[in-house]
Design brief:
The chain is α+β, with helices and mostly antiparallel strands and 458 residues long. It has helices spanning 2-18, 24-30, 61-73, 207-211, 215-221, 261-273, 302-313, 326-337, 404-408, 422-428, 434-441, 445-457, and strands spanning 41-42, 90-91, 118-127, 133-134, 142-143, 146-147, 156-167, 173-184, 195-200, 238-241, 246-249, 317-318, 348-349, 363-364, 372-374, 392-394. The strands form seven sheets. Strands 3, 4, 5 and 9 form a four-stranded antiparallel beta sheet that branches. It is globular. The structure holds calcium ion (3 copies).
Amino acid sequence: MKLKSSILGACIITCTLSSCTKNDELLQYSENEWLSGGAQTVFDQGAGAFSHPFPYLSGDKLRVHEIGDLGFEATFVTAPAPLNPGLGPVYNNVSCASCHIADGRGRPPYPGEQMKSLLIRLSAPGTDATGGPLPLPGFGGQLQQFALAGRVPEATVDILHTYLNRYFDDGTGYELAVPEYQFLNPYIPFPAGMQFSPRVAPPVFGLGLLEAVPEETILAYADEHDADGDGISGKPNYGYDVIKQRPVLGRFGWKAAQPTLKQQTAGAYHEDMGITSSYFPYESAYGQPQDDGLQDDSELTDSLLHAVTFYVQTLAVPARRNADAPKVMEGKTIFMNAGCGSCHRPSMTTGVNVAFPEISNQKIFPYSDMLLHDMGSELSDNRGDYLANGNEWRTPPLWGIGLTKLVNGHNYYLHDGRARSLMEAIMWHGGEGAASRDYVKQLSADDRAKLIAFLESL
Ligand SMILES: [Ca+2]
Ligand SMILES: [Ca+2]
Ligand SMILES: [Ca+2]
């Protein structure tokens, strides 16, 4: 299977590049749901499944990916230093890879552990000049729980849990863990009206393909005022593009507030690690006592920003496992019948980009519509993020989700990692997702297992 698929994959890209005629076998193959990332799918079911470059990268592009890979792994340190200086003065973590572990997802801290791959966005009520969240005076747009020697972290965070006990219709109980955040040791008192949004690091593979989906495709799924009356709206977010200096369709982040992978990457260096760049030339702590207030040169070169962005653009998507097993196929039918596919759209096709044929014209299976949905008050962070309100979250892609445990060693899902299993993630769905959740609630244990088997095959 593996070898055959790779060879056929090679045919597909050759055909795309030279527009040769498709024969039936290829056509059938291009419909094949095993290939979650189209021709840019990899056949690794192990712990490294999220960490492969696109199998088809022409010319010196693989080299750029490799340079970006080193940048993604690099541990930043206090300046001056010969290698990777510029960390801080305040930061959440020291490298991209320490949050996006093995290019996969982060998790909330275990009891007694410090928070590392979960971060807290902050804001004051209102919006800034770009329509985005208003920075919280004295703390900015994000809480940094670490600081360089001799400087004070902004605050530390403890997470406590309460538990909701609920029941499937067949009487089987399930439990939802509700996180409660306690902010401790703030370096100055928190201003009144503080809003916060906890978010775990999502996986970073397949993102170049999602960036290549035409805007029209995503907008065609939108039905903001539910004109067709199916209970599902779907709303595009428009974040602010700091280079174009205007709102642009958002795609990345849990609320789809980031328009491009480059800006997302520059933003991560800036807020998560304290590394300035041409995108964000001032330290996140600028104006706070942690910063020296001097305006230095960018700590990150444009060429490294380019390479690390290219790295996340060209991480391949793992192939599905057991996609044709009867249990999995029945699980997919249940998934569609439950209405999951109204938001977790099975497939999309990327647009044509002559400068980047590797991402062009690929039928991909992300299981997302890239739009915001009202997920109800129980999942709300009560904080706006451009056009997203507190209840609204972007449908996360489900591709590769069945490999989470293997790659990341845990089963924590949703924006703040509160769900401890795939089923718990489903049972948290409210708002527009409530009807789907209730459908699952009335399933037999056998059918619930089939639904999970399908998700685990993604
Ligand atoms: Ca810095
Ligand atoms: Ca801050
Ligand atoms: Ca609708």
